[in-house]
Amino acid sequence: MKVRYARVSTRIQNLDLQLDAFKEHGCEEIFTDKICWAKDKRQGLENALRFVKTGNTLVGWF
Q1: Which of 59, 57, 46, 51 has its CA nearest to residue 1?
Q2: What positions constitute the catalytic site (predicted)?
Q3: 2-59: what fold?
Q4: Which residues are catalytic?
Q5: Per residue in 3-62, pLDDT tens?
Q6: What's the distance, CA 28 to chain centroid?
């Protein structure tokens, strides 16, 4: 299973480009964060890491 984590770092950015790309490539579970500060908690990332099991692939946008 492909598990996707998408994040943007400002409130004016949106996740659409990332989400479209990963849906197109068969990611079954998608977790997201919109954070404004480096110290903001990344709940989406924490949830993705808890969800991933042996044999899954965690996919990120670089």
Answers
A1: 57
A2: 9 (o-(5'-phospho-dna)-serine intermediate)
A3: Rossmann fold (3.40.50)
A4: 9
A5: 988 888 877 788 888 888 888 877 788 899 887 776 678 899 999 999 999 999 998 876
A6: 12
Tell me which residue of 20, 10, 47 sits closest to 32, measured CA to CA: 47
Structure tokens that stand for 9 in this block:
């770092």
d(CA 32, CA 26): 16
CA–CA distances in Å: residue 58 to residues 12, 13, 17:
26, 22, 18
Task: Go through the chain and tell me how many residues it has.
Answer: 62
Model pTM above 0.70: yes
The residue written with tokens 């079954």 in the block is: 28
